[in-house]
Design brief:
446 residues; Protein-Tyrosine Phosphatase, Chain A; alpha/beta; Rossmann fold; UDP-N-acetylmuramoyl-L-alanine:D-glutamate ligase
C-alpha cells in the first residue's frame, strides 16, 4: 500500500478516531479543523504525532491527499467537498474508512428517534449474554477509534444519516431502522425522500446472509420497501400486525419469531414503558434472538435496563412533582413520544433552534396533558403561535435556572415538569447533553 496520504476534515470524535487508526495503518495524516479543536483532542494529536491545524484549512495540504475523511457535520454541498470530488479525490466518512480495517460483524442502528436507546439496549443484551462488544459510532467512541484499539466479537454502532451518506462498502451484518420522521431536512434540500434514501443506505451493501430489522408501522419505511428491493432478510416489528418472521405484540406479550424459534416476554415487565419503547425492545430482542442469547438472559436484560441519559430520565420528585429530563428530544416526533407517555398534568419546557418544525401533531396531546408551557429559547414566536390559544399559561426565558424556578411555581402536587424541547440546543447551550445537565443541576438546586 505504501504510505498513503489522508487529510481529515474535522477534529471532533470521528476525526480524532480516524487519525488514530490511519496513523496505526501507516498513513501520512494531516488533520484540519476550521473551528477550534478541544484540548482533550489536541492532546491526543500531539501524542500520536500527526500534523494538524485548527481555525483554518490549508488547501494545498488537503488537496495533496489521496483520500479525505470528512466529519459528518460537514455537508456534501460544502464548496471544498465539491472541489475535492471534482479533482477525483476520494471523500469518505469515518464509518467507511474504519470498515476497511475490520472483519468484526456490525449491528448498525439508524432512525430519526430511538436509535440511542436501541443501541444501548443491544449493547446491554450482548454484555449480559457474554458477547464481547464495542459500542459507539454516533454516540460515545468513534468506530475508527474502536477498530484501532481492540477487536471485540461484535460492534454495536449508532449511525446518523450524515454518517451513512459517506459510505461506499460499509456493510452491517444486522441493520436496524427504528423509524423515519422529518429531521435535518436542511441538509437534504428540504426533500423528505432524500432523507429517507439516506437512512436506507444502511441496507445498501447487505447480502442475503444479512438481516434488516425495521418498524413495519412506519409508512415512510414500508412505502420505500414497496418501491425498492433489498437483498438482506427482512425482520419487521409492529404493534399492529403479526409476522411469520419478525416481532409483534400478542396478549400483552412481546413475541419475536425467527425461523421457528420464538421468544416471548410480557410488556409489563419491560424496564422502559410506553409504546415507542415496546418497539425499541422488539428491535433489540430481535438482535438477541439472532445471536442466540439465552431467553432468560434476554428477559432479565430487558427488565433491568436503565435507559439513556437525557431520554425521559426521571430526575427527582420534589413536593410530589416529578421532574423529567428529555433533553435528547431534539425534534417534534421525540417530544410526541414524551408527551404521549405523561400520565398526569404536565408543565412543559420547550424551545431552542427549530429545524423546520411543524407542531400540528402535538396539538391534541398538549390540549390533553399540558397545563403550562415555558419557552426556553432565543426565538419562541412559532411555539407561541402554535400553542398560545391552547394553554392558559405561557412564559418565556433564556435561562435554565429561571425556567426550572418558573416550573416549580406552576406545578401542583402530582404534576410532572417535563423538559422536552423538540428543538436543537445551540442557541443557549453547547449541546443537548449540556442542556440536560443544566436542567438536572437546576432541579437539584431548588
Amino acid at each position: 500500500m505504501g504510505s498513503k496520504k489522508i487529510a481529515i476534515l474535522g477534529g471532533g470524535e470521528s476525526g480524532i478516531g480516524t487519525a488514530i487508526l490511519a496513523k496505526k495503518k501507516g498513513y501520512t495524516v494531516f488533520l484540519s479543523d476550521k473551528g477550534k479543536i478541544k484540548e482533550k483532542y489536541r492532546e491526543v494529536l500531539r501524542n500520536i504525532k500527526v500534523e494538524w491545524e485548527d481555525e483554518r484549512h490549508t488547501e494545498a495540504k488537503i488537496f495533496d491527499a489521496e483520500i479525505v475523511m470528512k466529519s459528518p457535520g460537514i455537508p456534501d454541498s460544502a464548496p471544498m467537498i465539491k472541489r475535492l470530488r471534482e479533482e477525483g479525490i476520494q471523500v469518505v466518512s469515518e464509518i467507511e474508512f474504519a470498515s476497511w480495517f475490520s472483519e468484526v460483524p456490525v449491528v448498525g442502528i439508524t432512525g430519526s428517534n430511538g436509535k440511542t436507546t436501541v443501541t444501548n439496549l443491544v449493547q446491554h443484551l450482548l454484555k449480559k449474554g457474554g458477547i464481547k462488544s464495542g459500542m459507539g459510532g454516533n454516540i460515545g467512541n468513534s468506530y475508527a477509534k474502536m477498530v484501532a484499539d481492540d477487536e471485540p466479537d461484535w460492534f454495536v454502532l449508532e449511525l446518523s444519516s450524515f454518517q451513512l451518506d459517506g459510505i461506499e462498502s460499509f456493510r452491517p451484518h444486522i441493520g436496524i431502522l427504528t423509524n423515519i420522521t422529518p429531521d435535518h431536512l436542511d441538509r437534504y434540500d428540504y426533500k423528505l425522500e432524500n432523507y429517507i434514501d439516506s437512512k436506507f443506505r444502511i441496507t445498501k451493501n447487505q447480502t442475503e446472509g444479512d438481516y434488516f430489522i425495521y418498524d413495519a408501522d412506519d409508512k415512510n419505511i414500508t412505502d420505500w420497501l414497496d418501491k425498492h428491493s433489498i437483498r438482506s432478510q427482512k425482520l419487521p416489528f409492529s404493534l399492529e400486525r403479526k409476522f411469520e418472521n419478525g416481532a409483534y405484540i400478542e396478549n400483552e406479550q412481546i413475541v419475536v419469531k425467527i425461523n421457528n424459534t420464538q421468544f416471548t416476554m410480557p410488556t409489563s415487565e419491560l424496564a422502559l414503558q410506553g409504546k415507542h419503547n415496546a418497539k425499541n425492545a422488539m428491535a433489540a430482542a430481535t438482535v438477541a434472538q439472532l445471536l442466540r442469547i439465552r431467553k432468560q438472559t434476554i428477559r432479565e436484560s430487558m427488565a433491568d435496563f436503565d435507559g439513556v441519559e437525557h431520554r425521559l430520565e426521571k430526575v427527582l420528585k420534589i413536593n410530589n412533582v416529578l421532574y423529567i429530563n428529555d433533553s435528547k428530544a431534539t425534534n417534534v416526533n421525540a417530544t410526541f413520544y414524551a408527551l404521549e407517555s405523561m400520565e398526569s398534568e404536565t408543565v412543559w419546557i420547550i424551545g431552542g433552534v427549530d429545524k423546520g418544525n411543524i407542531y400540528d401533531d402535538l396539538l391534541p396531546l398538549v390540549n390533553e396533558k399540558v397545563k403550562a408551557i415555558i419557552c426556553l429559547g432565543v426565538d419562541n414566536d412559532k411555539i407561541k403561535r402554535s400553542f398560545g390559544n391552547i394553554v392558559e399559561t405561557m412564559l418565556e426565558t433564556t435561562s435554565m435556572d429561571e425556567a426550572v424556578k418558573m416550573a416549580y411555581r406552576l406545578a401542583d402536587k402530582g404534576d410532572n415538569v417535563l423538559l422536552s424541547p423538540a428543538c436543537a440546543s445551540f442557541d443557549l447551550f453547547e449541546n443537548y447533553e449540556d442542556r440536560g445537565r443544566q436542567f438536572k443541576d437546576a432541579v437539584r438546586n431548588l
